[in-house]
């Protein structure tokens, strides 16, 4: 069974998963949020634009492997 969790601020992070590990899901969202904050604090980032950073993508995938 798949579950959809979300973490909503001004930006939505949504995760479709099979995990039942609520603590892991919470940790995943918290760390993704920290990565997102680092991106939007970059003066070269245009608010509302797509995040095209391969570093961001790699880090999010690593967090998914770690927590889910």
Automatic annotation (TrEMBL):
Pfam families: Sedlin_N. InterPro entries: Longin-like_dom_sf, Sedlin. GO terms for cellular component: cytoplasm. GO terms for biological process: endoplasmic reticulum to Golgi vesicle-mediated transport. This is Trafficking protein particle complex subunit. It comes from Eucalyptus grandis. The lineage of its organism: Eukaryota, Viridiplantae, Streptophyta, Embryophyta, Tracheophyta.
């Amino acid at each position: 069974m798949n579950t959809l969790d979300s973490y909503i601020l001004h930006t939505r992070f949504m995760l479709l998963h099979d995990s039942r590990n609520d603590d892991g899901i919470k940790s995943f969202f918290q760390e993704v949020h920290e990565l997102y904050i680092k991106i939007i604090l970059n003066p070269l980032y245009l608010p509302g634009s797509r995040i095209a950073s391969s570093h961001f993508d790699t880090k999010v995938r690593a967090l998914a492997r770690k927590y889910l």
